[in-house]
Each structure stands twice: as C-alpha cells, then as structure tokens.
Design goal:
Elements (H helix, E strand, L loop, with lengths): L1 H5 L5 H21 L1 H7 L5 H22 L5 H21 L4 E2 L2 E2 L3 E3 L6 E3 H19 L7 H19 L4 H17 L4 H24 L8 H13 L4 H16 L23 H34 L3 H25 L17 H35 L1 H8 L1
Antiparallel strand pairs: 1-2, 3-4
Helix pairs in contact: 2-4, 2-12, 4-14, 5-6, 5-7, 6-7, 6-8, 6-13, 6-14, 7-8, 8-9, 8-13, 11-12, 12-13, 12-14, 13-14
Length: 400
C-alpha cells in the first residue's frame, strides 16, 4: 500500500475531493438502500453497502491505472474507441429487454461476468476526448464548416442519435458539453450557431415523430417526454410524486438534519440511493450537509480549471475540460432535480450515488484529468533536474 501511495501523482486536491466524496457516500447509500432492500431483498441493507464498496474499489483502481497513462495516448485511443462505442450503442439499443422493471436498452450485459454496463456513460468520455483531439488538431488553422462535418460532427451526432431514444438527459448533457468544449476550443461562433440550430431541429423532428408513431421507439421516449410535460404542467404523475417526496425530505432536514440513518422519506422515495440521494442527504445531514457536498464539487471545478490552465498543450487543456466539466455539471443537475429546478432526469450524483457504471466512468474521467496534471508535475521535475545539472556549482560539487 505504501508503494502504491508513493506512486500516486497528479493534483492532490482532486485526489482528496474524490476520496472525500467516496467516503461520504457510504452512510447515505447504506441508509437510502433500505427501500431497495425491502423491495428486492430480505430487508438487509448490508449487501448493498458491500456492493457499493466493491464498485468504489474498482473505480479507484481504474482511476489509479488511468492516471499512470500519458495523456497523449488518449488521442489515438479516442479514435480507436469511436467505432467500438458505436457498435456497443447499437447493440444496447437493439436489446429491448428490462432489468428490475427498468428499460434495459440503456444497459448491456457483459459476457462471462454477468455485470450490466451503461454504454452511454463510456460513450460520453470517449466522445469528449475525441472532440478535444480534433480541436487541438485544427487549433490556429482556418477551417471551413464543410471540412469539420465528417471528422467532427458526424461521430457526435451519430452517438447522440443512438443515445437519445433511451436516455434523453444523457444525450442533452453530452451535446451541451460538446458545445461548451468547441466554444472554448476556438471553433467559430457562426458554425456553433448552425450546430445548435441543427440539434434543436433534429430534436423537434424526433419528438414529433415519436408522438405520431409511439410504437416505433420501444425505449424511453414516452418517459422523458412526459417528464418535461409534467415539469411544465405539474401533472399528477409518478415523477411528481418523486419530487414531492424529495421536497418533504429536504424540508425535514432543516439546518442540521435528522441524523445519519434517520431518514423517513427513504422508505417512500423511489431511487432514493441513486437519482434522489441528495434529498436523503439533506434530510439526514441538513442544509449544512447539502452545502458541504456542493462545496466539494465546486472545489473539484476549481481544481479542474487550475489543471487545465497549467496544462502544457492545448490538447491537455481541452481534455481536462471535456472529461472533467461533465462531472460537476451532472452533480449540479442531480441537485437541481431534487429541489425542482429541473425535470426528473435520472442522472446520478457522481461518486456518491450507488451504481457501478456511473462510479467507474467518473473515476475514468478523473483519472484522465490526473494524467494531465501528473504530466505537468513530471515536466517541472525534469526542468528542476536540468537546472541543477546546468549549474556550475552543482557540477563542481559532483567533481569534488
């Protein structure tokens, strides 16, 4: 263990934030999983805690392994993985099966191990790395919109189209983050406006088509359309029930909360250990606990900006923003849903909610960020050594 800790590189604050979020997650996950324990088990929540622990251990192993990879390797890896991800998304969408009552067209079961995996989360990380690679390639070059359609926007829209029917919120987040990334990467604003218009047009056509032919898409189109309609019209639906229970939990929490493990709404709130875990956290830890958790994500955002600023090249800067910013954005969306600022999205709270795929892909993204920051550390150390060797006094000391 000492040897492993000695080999840890990268931004220490990011390591600390990730560790704090993971450690903090055990109590709310253990408490909130009681609903699932009674619905799908014998009432024992210990098994869910062990499962969450295993997911986190594997996630941090992924983070450790990825942060040892030189980040320039992700340029080539992103190109190789694009067709692989497309095939996985097609295979996932074609399943049309269910897992525990949920639509399994968002998951694919890995052979031999029997573990389900949400392919859209991996697609998001790979796509952001791919876009960062392309933007760094055309940096300071004058390109026409036509030149960027095939190498840049075709993979983006192809993945979004494959994700959209089953998971609108993930597709929307990916599209938003791509737009932010191309804006920061210096892509012309007039081209971005064309892409925004095209995206909205495709979405409108998709919704109209789904409404006219509801049987064509056997996925979750009706679900996310109803969520948006419910958020606007306040209809009496399952989503409205979830929001009401979440607001009751938040109201019960007050300033200091009811105490760890003393939540009442965890027994009534569906997905209390994943999508709505923030409401349970506030109920048990109060307003102070909710603010503390938000500050951790804000600290992560601050360190992401620092790492991006200090990166040695444009690819590193864009890669940190591309894979790191969605983590904070997803966390804010999860919190906003709990307080009814957003419609129900199904997005988890990174590194806190239960769920293997979300934890693993968050750790993968953080590992990539740490790879960028560790490269900066190696360069500084190399420069320091070179300065020492060039110092005449240092050379004279070695001779004597």
């Amino acid at each position: 263990m000492t040897k492993v800790l000695g080999n840890i590189k990268g931004d220490r604050a990011i390591w600390a934030v990730a560790a704090l979020l993971a450690l903090f997650s055990f109590l709310p996950v253990y408490s909130a999983s009681s609903n699932l324990a009674y619905l799908y088990g014998n009432g024992d929540t210990f098994g869910f805690l062990v499962k969450h622990f295993a997911h986190l251990v594997l996630g941090f192993l992924i983070m450790y392994g990825v942060h040892k990879i030189p980040y320039h390797y992700f340029k080539g890896l992103s190109i190789i993985m694009i067709p692989v991800i497309v095939v996985l998304l097609i295979a996932t969408m074609a399943q049309n099966t269910t897992i525990e009552g949920a639509n399994a067209s968002r998951w694919i079961r890995l052979p031999f191990v029997g573990v389900t995996f949400q392919t859209s989360t991996l697609a998001a990380v790979v796509l952001m790395a791919y876009v960062a690679r392309y933007l760094s390639k055309i940096k300071d070059k004058k390109v026409s919109f036509k030149e960027t359609i095939l190498p840049l926007w075709l993979p983006v829209f192809l993945m979004l189209i494959l994700i959209l029917p089953a998971n609108f919120s993930t597709a929307a987040i990916i599209f938003s983050m791509v737009i932010v990334l191309v804006f920061l990467g210096g892509y012309p604003l007039k081209y971005i406006s064309v892409i925004l218009g095209s995206g909205l047009l495709i979405l409108a056509f998709f919704v109209l088509f789904a409404k006219a032919f509801p049987g064509v898409f056997p996925n979750r189109v009706d679900t996310w359309v109803s969520r948006i309609e419910n958020f606007a019209d306040k209809k009496d639906t399952q989503e409205d029930y979830q929001i009401e229970r979440a607001k009751i939990a938040i109201a019960r929490g007050k300033i200091i909360g009811t105490g760890p493990g003393k939540s009442v709404q965890r027994n009534f709130l569906p997905q209390s250990s994943s999508d709505f875990i923030y409401a349970i956290i506030i109920e048990e830890w109060g307003f102070l606990g909710g603010v503390f958790l938000m500050l951790l994500y804000m600290l992560l955002l601050f360190r992401l900006i620092i790492v991006a600023h200090k990166s040695v090249d444009i690819f590193g800067k864009l890669l940190v923003v591309g894979v790191g910013l969605p983590i904070v954005f997803q966390a804010l969306i999860n919190m906003a849903v709990a307080v009814e600022l957003f419609p129900v999205t199904g997005q988890t709270l990174p590194l806190v909610s239960s769920g293997g795929t979300s934890i693993w892909m968050t750790c993968l993204a953080i590992g990539i960020v740490l790879s960028v920051s560790s490269r900066r550390e190696d360069q500084i150390e190399g420069e320091h050594i070179e300065e020492k060797e060039d110092n005449p006094l240092e050379v004279l000391r070695k001779v004597l």
